[in-house]
Design goal:
By secondary structure, the chain is mainly alpha-helical. Helices cover 65% and strands 7% of the residues. It has 8 helices and 2 strands, in the order αααααββααα. It has a two-stranded antiparallel ribbon with strand order 1-2. It is globular, with a radius of gyration of 19 Å. The relative contact order is 0.10.
Length: 152
Amino acid sequence: MAARPTADDLLKIDNFVCFALYSAGHAFTRLYKPLLDPLGLTYPQYLVMAVLWEKDGRTVGEIGEKLLLESSTLTPLLKRLETAGMVRRTRDQDDERVVRIQLTPKGAELKQKAVEIPQAIGCATNITIPEVMKLTADIKALREKLLAAQAT
């Protein structure tokens, strides 16, 4: 049986699950950068595009909900994507307070170029599909527990 960790053990940065996730996120972003640069996308922009490739015409609120981002964070990102000619922002005809995001032909065509990115990431990390699926499920479960803890 493993020894119970001491207070000093608990305060070592190498034992922080939050730091492991934080630093892994940074490592992923650095890995994605050379793959996204030719597409003219940053990692957050790539996430927005992926959400729109799943379902075009989402509202800003729907995108924010999917990516767990506030509209104040999304709006400048969406403006940059619009300036780059990848999306078009329009007011909803039924409710002008709602902004819909539509892919432009340029944004839709970008999906074909982006299709190789997940495979490149898979090769770089050398993680099998079942391992990726389990890791993703575990991280999502952790995220849900964290969100639930914040709500109480």
